[in-house]
Known about the structure:
- The complex is a heterodimer.
- Chain A has helices at residues 13-16, 26-37, 40-55, 106-119, 140-152, 183-193, 195-199, 221-224, 241-251, 253-261, 288-292, 334-354, 361-368, 370-376; strands spanning 60-61, 74-75, 78-79, 93-96, 103-105, 123-126, 133-136, 168-169, 209-212, 227-234, 238-239, 269-272, 275-278, 297-298, 302-309, 323-329.
- Chain A has a five-stranded mixed sheet. A four-stranded antiparallel sheet of chain A has the order 2-4-7-6, with no helix packed on it.
- Chain A has four domains: 13-55, no CATH class; 62-152, 2-Layer Sandwich (Alpha-Beta Plaits), CATH 3.30.70; 168-233 and 305-385, Sulfite Reductase Hemoprotein, domain 1; 236-298, Alpha-Beta Plaits.
- By secondary structure, chain A is an alpha+beta fold.
- The longest helix of chain A is centred in the C-terminal third of the chain and has 21 residues, at 334-354.
- In chain B, 51% of the residues are buried.
- By secondary structure, chain B is of the alpha+beta class.
- Chain B is globular, with a radius of gyration of 24 Å.
- Chain B has ten helices and 14 strands.
- In chain B, helix 4 runs parallel beside helix 8.
Amino acid sequence: MADGNEFQLNPTPLLDDLESGPWPSFIKGFKEQFKKTGNTMIRGALDQLNYSYQTKMGYWKGGVVGVHGYGAGIISRYSMVSDLFPEAKEFHTVRIQPAPGLHYSSKSLREICDIWEKYGSGLINCHGQSGNLQLIGIEADKVQAAFDEFNQKGWDLGGAGACVRTAASCVGPARCEMSCYDTLNVHHKMLTYFTDLVHRPALPYKAKFKFSGCPNDCTNAIQRADYAVIGTWKGDIQVDEAEVKAFIDSKGMDYVVNNVVTRCPTNAITMESGSIKINNDDCVRCMHCINVMTKALSPGKERGVSLLCGGKGILKVGNMLGAMMIPFIKVDTEEEQEAFVELIEQILDFWADNALDHERLGEFIERIGMHAFLEGAELDTSIDMVTHPRDNPYFKAGYDHDPLKEISL
Amino acid sequence: MAAERTWTTIESGPPNAWDFLHPVCQKNYGKWKYHERPRPGVLKHVAESGDVLYTVRAGTERQDTATIIRRFCDLADKYADGFLRWTVRNNVEFMTPSWDNVEALIKDLNDLGHPVGGTGPSVSAIAHTQGWLHCDIPATDASGVAKSIMDIVYDEYIVEEMPNRVKLSTSCCEINCGGQADIAVIIQHTRPPRINHDILSGICEMPSTVARCPVAAIRPTTVNGKPSLMVVEEKCICCGACFGACPAMEINHPDYSKLAIWVGGKNSNARTAPANMKLVCHGIPQEPPRWPAVGTLVKRILDAYKDGARDWERMGEWIDRIGWKRFFETTGLKFDTYMIDTYRHARTSFNTSTHVRF
């Protein structure tokens, strides 16, 4: 760095191209932050990123950086080309667990910004795919002091590696009429209970939770989470007849037929005498008609959650979608929530005790088979776990199992 | 010397959300009645109490800074009683009971360069990964690809003119941290890893690296008298799992790491069940800083979907109706033999009927 030249950026011609165009530019933002604070780590990171754009390769490697007592939460990044770009030699990330639903007060965010500019680069990623507030760019010897200040303001680190990861939940009952349970509260309870496993990697591999208030699944739980907790209901969809009539009057019969009636996946809706009739026995709670007719229809009154297990990303066996494990369980009261957490722990413990290294819950269930999993995790068999009964005869039933016992002949 | 540490860690876990909720959210918690969308980028929620709450949603850089966040805080203080939140697709949201605030806030956001939109049947912001900026195993950048695509589809973010929601994602390795989406851009390794035998035994735990391979293509060997690993290249499926376990097995390559486009992923249970996305184009070269071929193809797929899908059909549902053959015809993409699955559940994708569209 030349004298008096602290606030000058180096040429980054390839990145500069990303400053144009209508969408907000992160390069513009980084440069603005550098010019404001003169934090040379930002300049180093920009220089290295531009080098990546030139050479089409990445240049960060991991290491071991942490805070006292924790084994997770800091992602270490050392530059592999620090001889070229010494200003970003160390560029570690601090993962902060946000409040469920990614709700913030401006006061709390300003505190985070102040602490982060004091110790780190000032670059902030909102948010990581698991749901962390990711503060990117800090040197190892500043990590502990930064964490201590965050911790004093009520923030804790998120997960990383083979541990319970930071969870995500939708906006929930704070602002959504479709939320069938208190996503924010159940998320808070679950992650608080598993805090030790968030901070200390002691599992075969990562374990992710996501909490969606209804089957629209705004947190993408079924696809991404080992434990997808999704709001649902029993009983009839609530219907406001006056609003149904108002909807049909304003949208017209063609719209109602083409976009509500025929879109029902189980043909549970028919037109009768100029209005819609829902056969609730056929309804699978997909949410479509409620999404279209937000004023007229709403989820039924008896509410709870479905638990789907085993969702995960592509690596290595291909993407796995979570599979139904518990079709309905109530989580309204303190006792119900505690029982639910215990049930999850039962599943998690069985997986943790028996899975191979680097084996996610979905892969584990596939390897050992659903029967062994249900037995080990002590879950009841339910027909809701499958789309249809098996279509091959290759199994050996328990020798004292009498299939005809419960059928009257 | 750092000063002696005096603070004792409080393992608090996530903070309780309650203190971060807008007062109208607190008052009507769990008692909302319905919602409407008065204009693109704005939600109107009405509570059983009769209270009304508007939400303004805006696109962000996602790789933000303290300066950007403080500007959002200023807007929250000015218009949203000091509260704000983010969506899982990196949009920022401000809530206010006042319509006057909505209009002024939209103007301020636009003046600061933040588009207001991403609601209802629009193209929302891209869920993406860290890429060359911060990841240790990326084969491409994510933020740059995302920015380049969003510049092209910007006009579809600020209006609600798609048949249904469109969710996009980009991922910088085959782990696919960006997730399933209506359209996803993911790196595709096309060559087996290149092994650095000089350092492998010193930096990699060999048994766990062998175990990491999903097709048992990695074997122990000795090279120049040193223990190392070898890859049976005929078996290798180029997934890159070994590279995550062992940095001496470099999978990324400036020319051989290509991009691929996947379509039809769906997370919601609305109408059809959640679905995995399918491969429709691969072998797209790395072209930083703008990856123009990717943007062109994503836009072409979006245009075909917008033109051909019926109201409420998601990308995958539209393709289910018209068939994959017509999808390839209308988008000008080319189905090739590598799009026939050869992996674990390949049989489930074979056509075991006479159902064919001619």
